[in-house]
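**Entry details**
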Amino acid sequence: MNDQSTTATKDRANPTGPERTRGGAYFTPRVDICETDTELLLYADMPGVRPDGVDLRYERGELLLTGKVTPRERPGRLVHGEYEEGDYYRSFTIHESIDSEKIEASCKNGVVTLRLPKVAKVQPRQIKVRSE
């Protein structure tokens, strides 16, 4: 049997610096980042976050992604619990090749998708070769 080390688990964030002032439990969402010729696509796994609970900010070359989870109501007494609830926080340093004015985000089924378009001057372009 092949042992895969990519088991998906939520990581509890180990706060350092300014994050120490945040109250309550929060998690670092796992992300996948894909690159095309025209943009970067970032997919962040944030279970329990609704679109209105996502906060995305770009400031001085840094992209801050936070997600607020509304606690679930459970009927009766909890007998066994493995799922921890908490908010999400992650930051990314954004290269100047990204057009920060055109960043877009969407959220569906707890997956936040960010579209980070590249500025036109760094996008590859086809150069037409003429015959003489």
Residues 1-9, 15-21 have pLDDT under 50 and may be disordered. The chain has no helices and nine strands.
